[in-house]
Amino acid sequence: MGEYIRLGNLEVYKTSLKLSRQSWTIYQRLDWQTKKIIGDQFIRSVDSIGANVAEGYGRYHYLDRIKFYYNSRGSLLEAKHWLWLLKTRNFISRQEFDELIKDLNYFNYQLNKFISSTYQTKKDE
């Protein structure tokens, strides 16, 4: 069994925190009505990405961990939906959209590798 890695040192978790910071910057600029209609759901879905990674990482059984990682992926897709709405309703620029979508896609790649490695760790035990 490998060495234990602290949550804050996991690359996938660090990326989720970056996503939260980027999204918070967008959220803060929105007016009250837009925050209420789209912004709140957008920021909750983005913050849920990292929260599910954290909760899953704290679980003992590998299948329990993976369930939370899948929840993180669901939150990722929800965040993309809200981001798309922010873009199509002209609340963010094309550049902001492209940058955050790129980072969300990179997180998705990291998360898929993390899920695979969690399965692999179980096979190796």
Automatic annotation (TrEMBL):
<dbReference type="InterPro" id="IPR036583">
    <property type="entry name" value="23S_rRNA_IVS_sf"/>
</dbReference>
<protein>
    <submittedName>
        <fullName>Four helix bundle protein</fullName>
    </submittedName>
</protein>
<dbReference type="Pfam" id="PF05635">
    <property type="entry name" value="23S_rRNA_IVP"/>
</dbReference>
<dbReference type="InterPro" id="IPR012657">
    <property type="entry name" value="23S_rRNA-intervening_sequence"/>
</dbReference>
